[in-house]
Specification:
The protein contains seven helices and two strands; from the N terminus they run H-H-H-H-E-E-H-H-H. The protein is mainly alpha-helical. A hairpin with a 2-residue loop joins strand 1 and strand 2.
Amino acid sequence: MPIALYRGLSDHDLMAIVTYLRTVPPIRNAVMQHSTYPFPIAPYGLPVDHVADPADTPIAPGAYIAGPLAHCIDCHTPPLTATQRDWSRTGAGGTPFEGPWGIVVAPNITPDKEHGGIGDWTDDQIRDALTRGVAADGRRLLAPMGARAPIYSRITDSDMRDLIAYLRSLRAQ
């Protein structure tokens, strides 16, 4: 869970999530054993008092979508530790995912043209990758990203343009 990114959710969006969750009927679930997961609170800092909506600039809304909302950047930025990313290499890929599909490493999503980035991709190809799970060369995206296409297929055109603009603004890596 990208808890560090969740700290950037705007007050408005956080209230929308809380409002929605309050409409979901509770389910009784007897907890038989408490978690022993060593959840590290310290790396995330003090509680956040207020987070404004993203600025109305050409890049900020897309950065907000790629960060706290969809957490693209968490998976597609090289890990330093289990809870920290190498933000000097934002979007350069490198996070491994292990599942029934084997081990897949999140690819570079910067505008780099030589090292597997999206630099040669058109906006439509980026949109297809996100909404249909299809890479620029026509192959299906691997799990877990390929399975997220139904989620991104519901993104508004405006939000998709903002997200693509942000991805194109990243430093090529």
